[in-house]
Design goal:
By secondary structure, the chain is an alpha+beta fold. Helices cover 36% and strands 11% of the residues. The two termini are 52 Å apart.
Length: 1528
């Protein structure tokens, strides 16, 4: 950089720049309006003499910089004042133009409509609008944003631009105008939106980035400077900044859907915005701009930009889709962008970059002395004759322009920067052949004042006449220089709603305060903050209403607020349980709380610490004293509430408390929550370290009762919580389920459309025969509570609703009761119907094409239902109801009035609703259907009956308030969202309002009314996931909610080995937190194939238990069905005594090994107290007190369980052991070993189970004996290896056994006729269902590999297109219109692949395209001929090759028959003696006969390896596709 030491030399250079600025810029400034025309050129491309907002701000920056430079000089001859007020005049001129459009701002705040926005340009002489609302792409958020950014910087530098409070209010409304930039598609910096320029706006990163900078810069600025008061301060809510900030960072380096990169982003990553806080992202974006857009004469604006190229058709403004291809490689280059690079280098102190781009820019600058008529051009440029509209264009001596009489009017050489350089027509072909090889010519628009201004500013800084600190007084340049992430401590204040709750919490060691104790600080509901902020910017004279009533986010409520010296705190919005039903699930509430803590920590950029004030209520903590135990429950229903690892979810009060909301807040005392540092304390102690924001602007707002609102919010908070529905033991009949984590009762449904033959809500409700099966009493769960539980359990789940007067408002429907159940016979109870007796045979059905009525639902014989006093006549036992058929209205109403079961009540109400609508008055109950549905909704929420909650929410058309926000968070991150399926599938690519979303969800898309609320849940969870962990969505571009729900159903079906109907019922009964956790598992992507063990629920960071998914189901007999799923079945299991491993390969197995060596030894308490189990000399990590078990599936060659059961301490553990053994398939190897003692609580059911493994020592086993067994499910007692020693006789001998896996594989599924899946699985390569599971999930999520779309673009550009069935993706105009990394191209590919309905098949299609790309990558001389590629044909050929090799020709492709025994002889499986080589057998196993089975097997192959899908697809592609080979 240059350095001037003498004052005279500084003055000389400043005077030089003054003359240049005066000539180029100030001479053009209109004396009346202060506006500057963008240029004075009138060309075929438009009239540039209008005043664009953006160009004016950039043009005046040189004047602003020069004014600041003159401040350094003692005697500046008044030039600093002159220049400063030229800046003020221009800024105020723009302000007046916009203030005349104040009604548009007011309308835009409500609509974000294209015709309701501020205009982008104005008449230079008058400030009037120059084109109509719909005649120009006016919506340019970046233009308004850069005006606000410049206003903030200039005000901070000491200039006063705003004079009145009316102007302050207007500026505040401009903040509201741009604060939703993250969700407002606009026309962007180039005024065209989509690059085709057909009037379609887009979300542009350059607009969002400039809005981020403006919001950050102007927040807290006092527009009256040092003399201003609270009423002249501009306020920006922190959550609005953060939402734009995160959107920008997720989008970069992409500019928009149609522009993969844009040079305009230079203004976002560098001067003037400095909006990006990630230095790596700044570097990546800059490098991509240089690589894709850089040239000798500047940068292209974006790829395939036809503007002002010689090939552009100037008779129309838009382009044809196929036309864009012709502009490739000849796009105009703009020297303007070199000035950005220079300024960026100056601000970042990168001298090499400064010198590089100064040298690149130098030859592009045109000297004013070479222009023969430039002097006349300047002097006449501001003439207002002819409206200032006569065209005048400068001419260069380099062109054949006639000489003028106005030579030598300029006093010195002034550098002029042209707008752009273009390729002349005669050089177009040569330039296309060799990019950057031909000379370009400057266009007629000379100079581009914007570019000249930035060049002058750069020179002032370069010559050290001005410092970067002076031009950037707000320090925005430091944004991207952060070296470490924020480690903010989040302060948490816990309040109790009353003294009773405070006392109870103190008993648990949790210190809280009541509302009265935090006085004089007032704690209010966030609604109050939202309401008082509506006064911000309100101005009746301008017709401005102030801030729209949008919720205030977590960052906003984490500040304290001061008004006239009084402090106010606000509870966070996300804990407001009036929003939908999600926050009624405490586990979900905890997950959200943790997420918000992390969010606040990550994005807190304000002085002081964030302070979250949490109000604890009786409604939240109603489960404190309700810990439930099932220690004495041996009946069917108790078993249904638990898995065989029941201890994970509620078998003792200690573990119930782990899942309690109270326990979570207790863990906050440790000071860390999910790696977020927290501090619990009293509110008064937190004030000094909190962030305190002033609301003193409210004092001047006479039209709002702000004091009443703030106090009213506090009163409403207290009053509402006083009316919260707590526990009441005397009003209703039903009892509440256990603690927060307890599950809904199992199989209550009478309706066939809902009937589930599997038990319970938990993912594997498995029961086994217990020694004690008789009912000993009656309770909510059909079983007596243990004395401890009965004493702790309040008898009522909810109290009566109360009217405004505080009097009880009686419920109309009878309260929910669980029916009594008895069982006959010796069955497991899985099929026992749990029915309200009077409704045993009721079914509600839908008749799509007629009056079909399905009554008399059949249930298993042998059921015995206890009679009930309220049971009606038997004539009602077989009532059949059809939705929409009013013939049974009276009977349904009578039944509704006597029903004691919420499940019955909600289905009857659905029937009444379908017939008569929500306003129908039910005389029997003196209420409307809508009122009764609200009552059922309320009761089911209290009882945590989530299936009913979702059903009533769907019937009431409830929509979650934050749905719009979450969908916005998805689409602004380039994720396309769909709602519905088939022809009624709605595609969402831009943010939508709640009304439209509600219509999409409830317009009759769903067969099951519960799907509407579930869709909303899925969208809410996806939004929270993408905010917390965007990398989870890597490779996913389209989120189809219907397919996601199918993926969830498939996961449950796989986990439980149940059919689709049962899986849907399980899904609907999941709590919101469980559903969110399951969705997280499905989203986990590549890990699904790497390991069969998946965490379903979250980690134990909060001190609550985390049930884990681990493999349980035998693989050999897991029927996959025709093309179905043969994955390892799973169940919830988490216990301190278990090591849940899932299905994993047997340790130390060689590639060709077929045998497993097992060793086991046991030592009781007096014999060393140990348990050793070795598999192939590898010690298994199960060695706990009780019985340690390892389970091997020899047919699949995998280890599926490693678990301990402490049968010394608990009969529950014995029952769990029995359930596990009962669930295992015959032939599975079970190694058992006791440690310490296994006898104390070993039940008869557990003894019977161990006998089924071949044990004959159960009758002799005593206290603290040593015992071990190498057993097999289904063998006779005494036929296995077993060792037993009395407690004083020492440890058992070491048992050893070698198992031949071939023997078991040959026996697999011998009853099935060949070819069965399990028989083939014994020798065909497979991944035990893991890759099939991954492909199903990835297909449902539309996940693709990295760089998938650019590689598809390359293939498509060489071929004629792709075909799937009758659907074709043609090369043209797709390739002509869209670039390789353009978002719109990815959408086109997704639409094409979307015709494949099977998710796994879709993933194989994706793999096929990747294989074709890899073939061309690895063989540069091979290219696909320009023909249509038939993807299904390639896929089918690959599957046929796989089937032929492994089935038709036998294992290994050696032409052998399929082995029928351990010896591997040539007999067919299934015991047939027919050789596979005979003709009938070959006809039976051909690919055409078993294509569906072959597909299912093929989909489970891994991708890589000699037997992976890639290998078979590559062979098929090479065989079928028309490749050309260039041998050179």
């Amino acid at each position: 950089m240059m350095q001037y030491h003498s004052q005279s030399s500084v003055r000389k250079r400043l005077d030089h720049y003054y003359r240049a600025v005066n000539t180029i810029i100030l001479n053009r400034q209109n004396p009346t309006t202060g506006l500057i025309p963008a240029s004075v050129a009138v060309t075929t491309h438009g009239d540039y003499r209008d005043a664009w907002v953006r160009d004016n701000v950039y043009s005046i920056m040189a004047v602003f910089g020069l004014a600041l430079a003159y401040r350094r000089v003692d005697d500046d001859e008044g030039r600093a004042y002159e220049l400063e007020h030229a800046v003020v005049k221009l800024m105020r001129g723009l302000l007046f133009c916009m203030m005349r459009q104040a009604p548009k701002i007011e309308q835009f705040k409500k609509t974000q409509g294209l015709n309701d926005c501020l205009h982008a340009k104005y008449n230079t002489a008058t400030g009037d609008t120059v084109v109509g609302d719909s005649e120009w792409g006016h919506l340019q958020i970046d233009a308004t944003s850069i005006f606000l950014l410049a206003l903030a910087q200039m005000t901070a530098s000491g200039m006063l631009i705003i004079y009145t409070t009316d102007e302050v209010d207007f500026i505040q409304n401009l903040v509201f105008y741009i604060e939703r930039a993250y969700r407002t598609p606009d026309y962007g910096i180039w005024e065209r939106g989509n690059k085709i320029n057909h009037g379609e706006p887009e979300l542009n990163s350059s607009s969002i980035g400039m809005a981020v900078a403006a919001l950050q810069a102007i927040n807290g600025i006092n527009l009256f400077g040092s003399r201003g008061g609270p009423s002249s301060v501009i306020h920006v809510l922190p959550d609005e900044i953060t939402r734009n900030y995160t959107t920008l960072h997720s989008a970069l380096p992409r500019e928009s859907n149609s522009k993969e990169i844009d040079a305009a982003l230079l203004s976002v990553i560098g001067f003037p915005a400095f909006a990006v806080g990630d230095a790596k992202l700044v570097k990546r974006t800059r490098e991509e701009i240089i690589e894709k857009l850089g040239g000798k004469y500047g940068c292209k604006r974006f790829l395939r930009d036809g503007h002002q190229t010689v090939l552009e058709n100037t008779t129309r403004l838009h382009y044809d889709a196929q036309e864009l291809k012709i502009f490739e490689d000849i796009e105009c280059e703009w020297p303007l962008f070199f000035t950005y690079f220079i300024l960026d280098g100056l601000f970042s102190e990168n001298e090499d970059q400064v010198e590089e781009y100064r040298s690149k820019l130098e030859p592009l600058i045109i000297d004013s002395a070479t222009l023969v008529d430039f002097g006349q051009f300047i002097s006449d440029s501001t003439s207002e004759s002819d409206g200032g509209r006569s065209p005048k264009t400068p001419s260069s001596t380099g062109f054949a322009t006639p000489a003028s009489n106005y030579e030598s009017k300029l006093p010195e050489h002034i550098p002029l920067i042209p707008e752009l350089y273009y390729v002349p027509s005669h050089l177009v072909d040569a330039e296309k052949k060799s990019n950057h090889s031909q000379a370009r010519i400057a266009n007629d628009n000379l100079p581009l004042v914007w570019a000249n201004s930035l060049h002058t500013l750069g020179n002032l800084i370069y010559e050290n006449l001005l410092s970067v600190a002076e031009i950037d007084p707000l320090g925005r340049r430091f944004n991207a220089r952060k070296t470490q992430s924020s480690d903010t401590i989040v302060q948490v204040v816990l309040l109790a709603e009353d003294a009773n709750l405070q006392s109870m919490l103190n008993m648990y060691g949790l210190e809280t305060q009541t509302m009265e104790q935090v006085h004089p600080i007032t704690v209010s509901h966030p609604q109050g903050l939202k309401e008082v902020y509506t006064a911000l910017g309100r101005n009746a004279k301008l017709g401005l209403s102030g801030r729209p009533k949008r919720p205030v986010g977590s960052l906003g409520t984490s500040r304290l607020y001061r008004v006239q010296g009084h402090l106010y705190a606000f509870t966070p919005h996300f804990m407001d349980n009036e929003e939908f039903y999600l926050t009624s699930d405490n586990d979900y509430l905890i997950s959200i709380f943790e997420q918000e803590l992390a969010f606040v920590r990550q994005y807190w950029e304000y002085p002081g610490r964030p302070t979250m004030v949490v109000l604890l209520t009786h409604a939240m903590l109603g489960g404190l004293a309700k810990s439930r135990t099932f220690n004495s429950q041996k009946d069917t229903e108790a078993q249904r509430l638990t898995t065989w690892r029941k201890s994970s979810l509620g078998s003792n009060p200690h573990k119930d408390n782990k899942r309690n909301l109270l326990n979570f807040f207790m863990t906050l005392r440790s000071g860390v929550c999910n790696n977020v540092r927290v501090r619990l304390g009293r509110l008064s102690e937190m004030v000094n370290t909190s962030c305190i924001e002033s609301l003193d602007f409210l004092v001047t707002k006479k039209d709002i009762d702000w004091l009443g609102i703030l106090r009213g919010a506090a009163d409403r908070r207290k009053g509402r919580n006083a009316r919260k529905l707590g526990l009441n033991e005397k009003q209703t009949q039903a009892t509440t389920p256990g603690a927060v984590g307890s599950r809904t009762p199992g199989n209550h449904r009478w309706s066939m459309r809902r009937h589930s033959s599997s038990a319970g809500l938990s993912f594997a409700s498995l029961t086994t025969l217990s020694a004690k099966t008789e009912l000993e009493g009656d309770s909510y769960f059909g079983a007596p509570l243990s004395p401890r539980a009965a004493a702790a359990e309040p008898s009522e789940p909810y109290t009566q609703k109360r009217s405004k007067k505080g009097q009880a408002k009686a419920f109309k429907l009878k309260d929910h009761e669980e029916p009594r159940v008895s069982r006959k016979g010796s069955g497991t109870g899985l099929n026992s119907a749990i029915l309200t007796p009077d409704l045993a045979n009721l079914e509600i059905s839908e008749a799509p094409a007629g009056e079909t009525s399905l009554g008399n639902a059949a249930f298993p014989a042998g059921e015995d239902e206890d009679s009930d006093e309220s049971s009606p006549d038997g004539s009602m036992d077989s009532l059949g109801l059809t939705l929409g058929d009013p013939s049974n209205m009276e009977a349904a109403q009578n039944m509704l009035s006597i029903s004691f079961n919420l499940y019955d009540q909600v289905d009857l109400l659905q029937y009444l609703l379908s017939c008569q609508g929500p306003d129908y008055f039910v005389n029997n109950l003196d209420a409307t259907v809508h009122t009764l549905l609200e009552e059922v909704y309320f009761k089911s929420l209290q009882l945590k009956l989530w299936s009913i909650v979702r059903q009533t929410a769907g019937l009431l058309n409830k929509v979650v308030n934050s749905l719009t926000i979450n969908i916005t968070d998805l689409v602004i991150r380039q994720k396309q969202v769909t709602i519905g399926s088939g022809l009624t599938e709605h595609f969402i690519t831009s943010p939508l309002g709640p009304d439209i979303l509600s219509q999409m969800i409830y317009d009759g898309n769903f067969d099951d009314v519960r799907e509407g609320p579930v869709v909303q849940e899925v969208l809410i969870y996806l939004g929270s996931f993408i905010r917390a962990d965007p990398e989870m969505f890597e490779g996913i571009m389209r989120l189809r909610t219907h397919f996601l729900i199918i993926a969830l159903r498939e996961e449950i079906s796989r986990l439980n080995s149940c059919d689709e109907t049962e899986a849907v019922e399980h899904l609907m009964r999941l709590s919101p937190f469980e559903l969110k956790s399951l969705l997280g598992t499905v989203l986990s992507g590549p890990t699904l194939s790497a390991n069969a063990t998946n965490m379903l629920l979250r980690s134990q960071s909060s001190g609550r238990l985390s049930p884990t998914m681990s493999g349980r189901r035998p693989l050999s007999n897991a029927s996959l069905g025709e093309g179905g799923d043969g994955n390892v079945s799973m169940s919830i299991a988490a216990s301190s005594s278990s090591v849940s491993m899932g299905a994993v390969l047997i340790p130390n197995m060689g590639s060709n090994s077929t045998s497993v060596t097992i060793k086991v030894q046991s030592g009781g308490y007096h014999s060393g107290s140990f348990s050793k189990i070795l598999i192939n000399e590898c010690t298994m990590s199960v060695s706990s007190r009780g019985i340690n078990m390892v389970v091997i599936d020899p047919a699949q060659g995998v280890l599926i369980e490693s678990v301990s059961f402490d049968t010394h301490i608990s009969e529950d553990e014995s029952d769990d052991l029995a359930r596990l053994v009962d669930w295992l398939q015959p032939g599975m190897i079970v190694i058992c070993s006791s440690k310490d003692d296994c006898f104390e609580h070993l039940t008869s059911a557990a003894r019977l189970a161990l006998t089924q493994l071949g044990s004959e020592c159960m009758a002799d086993l005593k206290y603290r004996d040593s015992w071990c067994l190498i057993g097999e499910k289904g063998v006779e007692p005494g036929t296995t290896q077993e060792a037993h020693k009395a407690f004083m006789d020492g440890p058992t001998p070491v048992l050893e056994k070698i198992i031949d896996l071939n023997h078991y594989k040959a026996k697999a599924d011998v009853q099935d006729s060949f070819p069965s899946r399990s028989a083939i699985a014994a020798f065909v390569p497979n991944s035990s269902g893991r890759w099939l599971r991954r492909r199903k999930n990835d297909g449902a999520l539309n996940r693709v590999p990295n760089k998938f779309y650019p590689r598809v673009w390359q293939i498509l550009s060489r071929s004629a297109g792709f075909r799937i069935g009758s659907h074709v993706l043609p090369r043209d105009p797709i390739i002509s219109e869209k670039t390789a990394e353009e978002f719109n191209f990815a959408l086109a590919v997704e639409n094409f692949l979307g015709v494949i309905l099977d998710p796994a098949e879709r993933q194989i299609a994706v793999e096929t395209l990747m294989v074709i790309a890899k073939i061309e990558d690895r063989n540069p001389g091979m290219e696909v001929q320009p023909e249509v590629i038939d993807l299904p044909m390639v896929m089918r050929e690959a599957m046929s090759k796989f089937w032929t090799k492994w089935v038709v020709n036998g294992p290994g492709g050696r032409g052998q028959g399929i082995p029928g025994g351990a010896s591997g002889s040539g007999t067919a499986l299934g015991g047939s003696s027919m050789a596979m080589g005979s003709k009938p057998a070959l006809e039976d196993v051909t690919f055409d006969h078993h294509e569906r089975l072959a597909r299912g097997m093929f989909y489970d192959l891994p991708q890589e390896g000699k037997e992976g899908t890639f290998a078979y697809l590559a062979r098929a592609a090479l065989k079928l596709l028309p490749y050309s080979i260039d041998l050179e």
